[in-house]
Amino acid sequence: MEGGLSQRAIVFLVSLLLIAMVAVIYGVQHFVDPEVTVTSATLSDQKTEYEISKLEAEISRIRSDTAGSLFWLKLIALFVTVGGAVGGYLVGQSLNTSRRLSFEHRKDVDAAYQSIVNELSEESPILRAAASVKLGSILKTFPVEWRVTKERKYQIVQLTKQILAAALSIESDTKVRKTITISIALDNSDADSELANLRELDLSGACGNDAYWAKCDFFGADFYSADMSASSFRKSSLEYTQFREAVLQGAVFNESNCVGTNFAMSDLRGATFTNAILDGVNFDQAKVFGVDLVGATIENPMAGQVDCSADGDGSEWVSVKSWIDEKRTQADI
Fold first, then answer.
1. What is the per-residue pLDDT for 43?
2. What is the pLDDT of residues 50-89, one digit of tens each?
3. Owning domain of residue 91
4. Beta carbons of 162 and 180 less than 8 angstroms apart
5. Alpha carbons 167 and 131: distance in angstroms, whole number
6. Would you say 156 and 135 are in contact if contact means Cβ atoms under 8 Å apart?
7. Does residue 128 contact residue 119 with C-beta atoms inside 8 Å?
8. Of 102, 136, 151, which marks where a domain is finished?
9. H helix and E strand count, the chain
10. Are residues 196 and 319 in the same domain?
11. Among 162, 166, 160, 130, which residue's Cα sits nearest to residue 142?
12. Cα–Cα distance between 303 and 287 in angstroms, integer?
């Protein structure tokens, strides 16, 4: 048996051993304990009768020791001692075997996972793209043959997303980067949400331009100095996401939830926020030429200035409030 003896098998073996012991011990008593009959009818002497009474009491005590209540009490004690020893040994051996097999299986899983990660450093773009697809398949459907605990599964999933995020910051091939952006958004482990789980992910310095990240949860994610030009965040949750100094030219934030999102010093030229929720957003020193705010809900924006120049050269600074008021006037938002 791969995992050692099961608890049911151990109980069965111990019970079988005890039953065999009872049968042997009880059977032996019939051979070693013959019936002793003493007849005192012909004895008239009182002393002789006294001796016979003592002999009968002794025989009764011996019978009690070998087949009576005392015998069974001793037998029960023997059961407890032997059964406990044998059962404890079998349970210990089973647990040790289970731990050893579990450790060996974990090493096999780690080796298989490491081999996939190593493929991300291959010289061939095709192999790197294939590796990102394999990692994405782990996020989408965790391998059933990798029998790991829930905690270990969570660790592998989080590590996979972070590895793919790191790959976005160093990958030079545009096709491979596109594959990585698709793979990283395949985590559907949160059954209660229709959004892909990318919460609190470190994507600083990532180059994921033209990524399609619609319906993703980026709560608390960090896009510091990332290049996400022409990317789509449609219907995504961007609560408290950090886009400080990020390049977001032509990015789509339509119907996204941008509560507390930080766009400070980012390049938002040509970005669209149609019907987005912009509550407590920070646009300070952002480049906002051509930004579309039609239908957006804007509440409590942080104070600051924005660069409205077409070239983003800082030649046309206005306050955030003035810029939003102007947009409201133009589009009646």
1. 46
2. 676 767 666 666 655 555 555 556 666 666 676 666 666 6
3. 7-102
4. no
5. 11
6. no
7. yes
8. 102
9. 7, 6
10. yes
11. 160
12. 15
